[in-house]
DNA sequence: TTATTACATTGTAATCTTTATAATTAGTTT
DNA sequence: AAACTAATTATAAAGATTACAATGTAATAA
């Protein structure tokens, strides 16, 4: 487990550098708060909410405003660094944008797991011909019960 | 256009009766407000928000509370009469539950159009084997620009 | 029919997430 | 270092939904 984490940390190090370059080349300033939000997003495996991020960083930045988190998430979204995942009642979740993938969501504990599957191009194509829309993208999620929650009945 | 509407009204008449039976057999009382919300949902073609319904009925029920609309929508949802469609920032939309179908959404004007396509069972099956989840259902929507909005550039 | 009971509606307050605003702070460029 | 501009902060405001308590009404029993 430790090894796993260390290995991941090495990996994210590159991703952070890459993301910072992306920000710089988009004319976005690198501030300590912004860097921390970005870093947390890249290292997090939980598809965090804005409040998750806010709480995770309040130790390091006791004066940081929740508006800063939202502002930065919007900036990251605008330049394509992160994707916003919106669900029913609860708050949005944010996903650092690596490769395209879908999500499987546990209805019992709320866990969100990545799920790789070829893009549903046929569905998009048919929708175009049937509805006359010019299709730009689609969204799909799968809901169910995760292994942990199945065990606990 | 008139003929079209009259024809549809005949059709919805049966659906309303059917839905009322469903409510009765579920032990849910039929009140005038509840009936009006149900009727509006069945006749509406726009996947209305709670506020759409509230506004549409305020002529007939000047004293109706917005809480009543929400309460009834919850009741309808609980017994499976309607489905709640949740999108990002905006408010939920409600769909009278006829047959299973997907939706195509215009990113320009917000229009939501029904789209019939065979259920993505293969995707669900693969998700089960890959993630170990017990899958219950999925959701999919397609986004793009509707014909009307394409015309207006 | 009347009384009882449980459910539904109403009006309003509260909650929760997200955005707007204005003042202050801090990167960046010259 | 000075000037310029963007980012942060604190707080207020907005918008959607839910909670709550009082009142009203449909269903059922007496
Ligand atoms: Mn993901
Ligand atoms: Mn529909
Ligand atoms: Zn779970
Ligand atoms: Zn449109």
From TrEMBL, chains A, B:
<keyword id="KW-0862">Zinc</keyword>
<dbReference type="GO" id="GO:0045892">
    <property type="term" value="P:negative regulation of DNA-templated transcription"/>
</dbReference>
<feature type="binding site">
    <location>
        <position position="138"/>
    </location>
    <ligand>
        <name>Fe cation</name>
    </ligand>
</feature>
<feature type="binding site">
    <location>
        <position position="149"/>
    </location>
    <ligand>
        <name>Zn(2+)</name>
    </ligand>
</feature>
<keyword id="KW-0408">Iron</keyword>
<keyword id="KW-0805">Transcription regulation</keyword>
<feature type="binding site">
    <location>
        <position position="146"/>
    </location>
    <ligand>
        <name>Zn(2+)</name>
    </ligand>
</feature>
<dbReference type="InterPro" id="IPR043135">
    <property type="entry name" value="Fur_C"/>
</dbReference>
<dbReference type="GO" id="GO:0000976">
    <property type="term" value="F:transcription cis-regulatory region binding"/>
</dbReference>
<keyword id="KW-0963">Cytoplasm</keyword>
<keyword id="KW-0479">Metal-binding</keyword>
<keyword id="KW-0238">DNA-binding</keyword>
<dbReference type="GO" id="GO:1900376">
    <property type="term" value="P:regulation of secondary metabolite biosynthetic process"/>
</dbReference>
<dbReference type="GO" id="GO:0008270">
    <property type="term" value="F:zinc ion binding"/>
</dbReference>
<comment type="similarity">
    <text>Belongs to the Fur family.</text>
</comment>
<keyword id="KW-0678">Repressor</keyword>
<keyword id="KW-0804">Transcription</keyword>
<dbReference type="InterPro" id="IPR002481">
    <property type="entry name" value="FUR"/>
</dbReference>
<dbReference type="GO" id="GO:0003700">
    <property type="term" value="F:DNA-binding transcription factor activity"/>
</dbReference>
<keyword id="KW-0464">Manganese</keyword>
<feature type="binding site">
    <location>
        <position position="106"/>
    </location>
    <ligand>
        <name>Zn(2+)</name>
    </ligand>
</feature>
<feature type="binding site">
    <location>
        <position position="109"/>
    </location>
    <ligand>
        <name>Zn(2+)</name>
    </ligand>
</feature>
<dbReference type="Pfam" id="PF01475">
    <property type="entry name" value="FUR"/>
</dbReference>
<protein>
    <submittedName>
        <fullName>Fur family transcriptional regulator, peroxide stress response regulator</fullName>
    </submittedName>
</protein>
<dbReference type="InterPro" id="IPR036390">
    <property type="entry name" value="WH_DNA-bd_sf"/>
</dbReference>
<dbReference type="GO" id="GO:0005737">
    <property type="term" value="C:cytoplasm"/>
</dbReference>
<dbReference type="InterPro" id="IPR036388">
    <property type="entry name" value="WH-like_DNA-bd_sf"/>
</dbReference>
